[in-house]
């Protein structure tokens, strides 16, 4: 029997595996050749790639359960200062990554993107923190359900009032609100129109993903028997998946809208996967393979920032290839990985190469006990 006061290797392994998958799916050799599970769903649906972001928020929630206990869950004072500092810091890092490389002759600040992944993490963390320090477990569950149902009704209400599809890319309420508050020129344009998948409205249900992590973290932190708790976590995870899937018949599972069904479905998968990892790693002690992932998870925010900066640099620099100027990113893929393994496998190998190279940097930091925490 694994006692509850032991530090669970599975938590660090889960975080590291999530970060490794993040690097893999974010750095294919070319987006023209990517295996289906390693790309986001075009709109409705959920792929392996669509699990990365909610898994990270899920981990944030679990970490909150451990870190907030040190402050005795006080509503103000040191804990509030810590939450506010982390929120502002993470949000600012996200803005800086959007602005990198900062000095560009063609930079147009009128089209600067305000939101992003780290900005979403910061705001979801802040909202979830304010709920956690003011409500007990029953209250957190009730507030979470209220948010998910309320978000569903908001989207539906907009559709009913305007006569449009409430879940379509061009007509959803999130796009309307972001356009009004942020301005369409400050939104993400990767979908072909100004629409931000990390928009303001959908940040509210994303906080529930953090809260699910907090509730699971409470189960882990307070249990006396992790083997028994793994069974309870597995049941909870399965129920969330089924509920999200069934609700999905009327509210599609959609990452870019962060629909309530997406919250439940991905939260359930996260809970189920973590339950399996705790059982395998910490209960059955089959942990000889975990160290590389533990290293990956030890500097998660640093890895995200580093990978983003590296990709932007590689896309910015230019090389001559057969008389044409292409980015350093494309040059590396076309001259090394594509000739070696072909289009799609070369693209996959390119991503795996980046996973390995970033791991080497993180392994050196781990060995030197360099941990960048916020």
Strand composition percent: under 5%
Strand order in the sheet with the most strands = 1-2
Encode the helix/strand succession as letters. Answer: HHHHHHHHHHHEEHH
- Average pLDDT works out at 92
- End-to-end CA span: 34 Å
Residues in helices, as a percent range: 55-70%
The total count of strands amounts to 2
Radius of gyration: 21 Å
Count of alpha/pi helices = 13
Which outline best applies?
globular
Q: Mind describing the biggest β-sheet? A: 2 strands, antiparallel
Features:
mainly alpha; 2% strand; globular; 374 residues; 2 strands; single chain
What is the compact description of this entry?
The protein has 374 residues and is an all-alpha fold. It has 13 helices and two strands, in the order H-H-H-H-H-H-H-H-H-H-H-E-E-H-H.
Write up this protein.
The protein is mostly helical and 374 residues long. Helices cover 64% and strands 2% of the residues. The protein contains 13 helices and two strands; from the N terminus they run αααααααααααββαα. The chain has a two-stranded antiparallel ribbon with strand order 1-2. Strand 1 (318-321) and strand 2 form a beta hairpin. The protein is globular, with a radius of gyration of 21 Å. The mean pLDDT is 92.
SSE order and pairing:
Layout: H1 9-26, H2 52-69, H3 77-99, H4 117-132, H5 137-162, H6 173-181, H7 203-222, H8 226-247, H9 260-283, H10 291-297, H11 300-316, E1 318-321, E2 324-327, H12 328-341, H13 343-367
Antiparallel strand pairs: 1-2
Helix pairs in contact: 1-2, 1-9, 1-10, 1-11, 1-13, 2-4, 2-7, 3-4, 4-7, 5-7, 7-9, 8-9, 12-13
